[in-house]
Queue: 2 jobs
Job 1
Amino acid sequence: MELKELTLKKALNLLDEGKLSSKELCTLTLEQIKKYDPLVKAFLYVNEEWVLKQAEEADKKRKEGKRDLLTGIPLSIKDNILIKGHPTTCASKILANYIAPYDATVIERLKSQGVVFIGKTNMDEFAMGSSTENSGFFPTRNPWDLERVPGGSSGGSAVSVALRMGLGSLGSDTGGSIRQPAAFCGVVGMKPTYGLVSRFGLVAFASSLDQIGPFGLTVEDTALLLQAIAGNDPKDSTSAEIEIPNYLEFIENNLNTTFKIGLPKEYYSYDIDPEITKYLEKTIEILKKRHTMVEISLPHTKYAVATYYIIAPAEASSNLARYDGVKYGFRAEAKSLLEMYKKSRGLGFGKEVKRRIMLGTYALSAGYYDAYYLKASKVRTLIKEDFEKAFKEVDLILTPTTPTPPFRLGEKISDPLQMYLSDIFTIPVNLAGLPALSLPVGLTTDNLPVGVQIIGPQFKDELVLALAYQIEKDLSLKFIPPILKD
Amino acid sequence: MPITPDEVKKIAHLARLEFSEEELLAYTEELSKILDYFQELQEVDTSTIAPTFHPYKKKTPFREDEVETFENIEGLLKIAPELKDTLIVVPKVVKAP
């Protein structure tokens, strides 16, 4: 059996039919990691013994006739989600020795569904970045071109799925951190509606924007993973109490449903790489056969990046105050408490994290609060209302996921503002708390993946998946990085 | 420059971050550029707009105030930088009388 031909759903069938054991599948996955991870460096932590033990337990469960939603399936997890007894570093030196004392709610759920955790994936430190170059340990590389970035911040998760080092992954998305790397690596990545998935046990970056979400090789795989993690959690006070539909059933039942799809003119008039435009237009041509396409306006789009880079750092500066060297994490030698705080934080945090803490502290400080934080929070209202108005007219919105294909390592790292601007199409969704998914739709002439983004109304995650499933079926493409073909 | 090295120093103190002189100057330049970019928000009329602090409005959920024992106290202590028995050691915060 070849891993590159396998999807999560296919693997489940093989496991159900007894043609494959979880131990065999996980052993293959570990071999895949040994072969390809030295090239791309997607993982921060892989514990073989633990992986095989989990796989054996899953096989035992199956033998006893206990089959949960994902029994025996190997998944990778972004290193800002807590798995009890194992390291969670957020790719930061300040948490280099941190061992999670409890499970995140999503991990508890996946455990009860029989998942095998294959390892923890690399990311931009504390999820701050768009290239995984801000990892405090090492950068991750794009499997389609090793000289290019995989996107970020969940770069390691996207790469692990693209190279079949695990049949799916969980990441987190604060301003595009699932969708952008998914687009750059040729996999499906979804940011669910804010409140659909519990954030308990996700290391907080910007609490009003963060959301955990799945990466999959296909829309079906992504839907299955969302099914496993969605739902109310009393431990997260922002978690929604809504009925969770059966996503797989929903997308099957809506394969021929017609939608009214909005194309926001502000996105389409942006300076987009011609190769991205080419595939966007191709996708629109396909959609026109069944659906109604209408031009819409989201007039405050151009203010989204500035709004986001005030609000997210403001929340981060407050959330990251907890890393003080007292109870856990890195502690620098110091004579006084104040010196200990300053040194531990100064040495423990990386450049971008400190930059954002500074920005956030400034935006919240006396004299500047009104001009920055409060102003941005008001513009956020306008951005949110733009979407609310649009969704009175259309069912879903289609945009590019990114303005360009994956860029080169080092290309934007010295210019923070340029890096921030690369998130222009994904950021508004987080500010408004909406569900959105990136779907791979083609390859550039340089053989680099291109993604489109589908945005839905609040808590209509199933509609987003349904349209993605239709496009995926129509295109019927497989995204296998060339290094896997050798 | 919208922000001076002195201001950056003050913010660094508020954020409890130690910087070298070199870092201080680099951050001053970078933050100035970013803050300049933020100026575009000033062209938006928000005089009648209420702020959004949260994308999903929900009543604060209440629960009974009952004690739940955390079962992994050992795991919490194990990750502390310095321990004396079950106490976490920090630099002295009070002067001896």
Job 2
Amino acid sequence: MKARTSLLLGSLSAALVALALTSPRVIAADKVDPVADAKAFQNFFFQKFPDVKHEDFVNGPYSMNEDMKRQWQEKEEFPPYEFALDAGKEMFSTPFKNGKTYADCFANGGIGIRQNYPYFDTKEGKVVTLELALNRCREANGEAPYSYVKDEMASLTAYMAFTSRGKPMDIRIPDDPRALEAFENGKRYFYTRRGQLNFSCASCHVQSPGERIRAEILAPALGILNAMPIYRSEWSGMGTTSRRFITCNSQTRAVPLEPQADEYRDVEYFLSYVANGLPISGPGARP
Amino acid sequence: MKRSLPIAMLLALSLAPAARAANEADYQAAYAAAEAASEEAAGMRNQWTTTVSTLAAAKKAGDGGDFDRAVAAAREAEALAKASIVQATSEKEAWKAMEIR
């Protein structure tokens, strides 16, 4: 009886020791570590496409295909987003009815700050995108908000991106558990399959960049938002980040969320953070 | 023996349930089930566009009195909604398999 008891106690102690040794590893694996995530994310693409210059990833499909790159370089001589850029510049400097302008709502008068968006607002406890900040600026000055998917918002963000061209994406994650949660939620959204076609964002932009989907060449996820907003020939017009997310969802036969839903804000936060260090190239042009 | 076969066939046919056209009550029941599944999927933020369009097609057929078509569409919409619920449930953990580490 004694032998059996000591055997039982011995086994129990061994199990507890084993549990104690393995638990920290389990916790470490589940810990949110944006720095490690960004490093792994960038390395994945750098290794998958060793011939692509790191700063070229922000040019989407044009970084994947030499023929397309040449076409795009020619297109850049008379860029299709130029009208939006001019309109955006004018809108940006035109005062609201109360005499203030967009410059009053942003650091550095709104010039050269695209690389800092989206940011985590510790007061609100949520991610704030540039599109959201622009509409909040309008509302704070007694103006009606713009549609998140239409031309005016695309023009404004095109101008703000243009003034930030070449600046490295610089997204911060403050020491706040809610910011880490937003990053993690964005990551989850990015990798989660949805829609009847059972696609995640990663199905196209991690597993298949450079490959064709019908007539299009898929862009790599790395730096995909650095070029926003974009002129898309497919749309015959400009599109915001909101429009891009909504269209991606529809294409997988998933009902899109409302523009600037928490999930979209979080996935923008995640995708922008993992592109830290890569230059802003917006506004962009895509097939 | 020769006679017993036709008799058995007649008996089997008479016992088989006759296929009948769907009525409004069938449609209402099928539509309610589809709508409930669709709402559950929407609550999980994982609605499929095909669920919405198939449910709309069921309603259109039902409103037009074509209950056979309405019931078929409602059942299809319910199946689509249930598939989207399964997807959302499994993806709560499955997404990690795709993550770059």
